[in-house]
Amino acid sequence: MINSISHLPQQKQALLEQLVDQLSGIDGMAAVVLGGSYASGTQHAASDLDIGLYYFEASPFAIADIQRAADALSVRGPVSVTGFYGWGAWVNGGAWIHTAQGKVDFLYRNLDQIQRTIAEAQQGISHHDYDQQPAYGFYSVIYLAETHICIPLYDPQGLIAALKRQVETYPARLKQKVIADSLWSAEFTLLHARGFAAQGDIYNTAGCLTRAAANLTQALFALNERYFIRDKKVLETAASFPLLPPGYIQQINAVLACPGRTAQELAQAVSDLEGAWRSVVSLPEVSYAPQFQL
Known about the structure:
2 domains; 5-stranded mixed beta sheet; 11 helices; 7 strands; elongated
């Protein structure tokens, strides 16, 4: 039996125990964790149960075994279960399952890939796969965030516990690199935004504004040594950061809510977001220099 998770409703706790009992018996299942909002403590009544299924590249579990476990839970008939990396190079694969106690998500996680990603992060190396998921893609730092918050449910070799120790402290090199790259990308994007705005090009101006805002989000997470995990409710999370310009959240929301229709309105939106960029660059803890002269 797994340890009781205090903020988990009794019915979901029982479901989790059933799941761990089934999944831990599958050959090649190296570890099982609880992730998502129930791991981070940000859940609400309708939150999914996010279950991470961990394996080694050389000896993975069989997808047929995952299919049987998913079908046994489903109240809507056979479940669509993917193969490895059926959802892409970073999200990997899994299943969405409708159960009597609510939705359960299985997410495959390759332990070798996670270890490589953590080792790279400690050297200041990160990756961004824009096509992987809405709204702004998949950042490799998400693997560190997942590792940091997850609750091991089945970890007989202490693999997850060892990974969690590696991410206890935000890597200094990663912090420096994410801040520098994100602020430069935002600056470069806003340069293009000015040109699009002058032409009254709504499509490209709006795209630049949202892209620059996403860049600033990454910079602020790194600056505050918080692992970025998802875009959902990201500004609500950022609002609690100790290192945040006054009025920043309101400024970003105001620009993105109504960038405008005319060239003049679009230009003002770009100017406002440039102001938000400058407010981040001006934080006393930031030392920024553009990567190239514009």
